[in-house]
Design brief:
Helices cover 36% and strands 19% of the residues. With 181 residues, the protein is an alpha/beta fold. A five-stranded mixed β-sheet has the order 2-1-3-5-4, sandwiched between helices.
């Protein structure tokens, strides 16, 4: 009889612990996302970008400031470029509209800080995720008097910035290029 009571108490405790409320589902999702693989030095994912060994699919998350979203033609050209030069045939693009940081210029550290707050896509399963930020401000290193401007920079293995405001300024000054180029 004593063993039966002990077994009943043990079964009750097991049932109670297993039926207790789980953590918030959003917290569980955040815990499951491993960000470290997307925060490496530039070049660390070169093989993964080009080959299908570790990742067969590519997810491109485009964060952009309202009014600086890349054109559909530019993204289509970019996807074609990637398909021609990589083994990735499954390429998905998702857009993330962001508020302007309201800066006259941006350092790479400021861009990385914006990514830390806004990026939602990270490597998962067979999908390699890259993040591209289309900025509404030029690079802090630009020197227009010497005609030295930065169109874009890679600052991590799966992260880059396009200084879209600078690109648009150049397009406006040229009869040779368009925004879809």
């Amino acid at each position: 009889m004593k063993r039966f009571k002990l077994l009943l108490i043990f079964a009750g405790l097991t049932l109670f612990l297993n039926c207790s409320k789980d953590e918030d589902p959003q917290t569980q999702i955040e815990q499951e996302i491993e960000k470290a693989a997307n925060l490496l030095a530039t070049g660390a994912s070169a093989h993964d970008l080009l080959a299908n060994t570790n990742f067969s699919d590519l997810l491109i998350e485009i964060g952009y400031v309202e009014g600086f979203r890349p054109t559909a033609a530019a993204i289509s050209n970019f996807e074609d470029f990637l398909r021609d030069r990589t083994f990735k045939q499954n390429i998905t693009v998702q857009y993330l509209s962001l508020d302007s940081p309201n800066e006259e210029t941006l350092t790479l550290q400021e861009v990385a800080d914006l990514e830390a707050v806004n990026r939602t896509a990270y490597n998962l399963g067979n999908t390699l995720a890259i993040y591209i930020y289309f900025a509404d401000a030029p690079a802090d290193t630009d020197n227009e008097e010497q005609n030295l401007v930065t169109l874009g920079s890679v600052y991590r293995n799966t992260s880059m910035v396009i200084y879209e405001s600078t690109v648009r300024d150049l397009v406006a000054k040229s009869g040779q290029i368009t925004l879809s180029d």
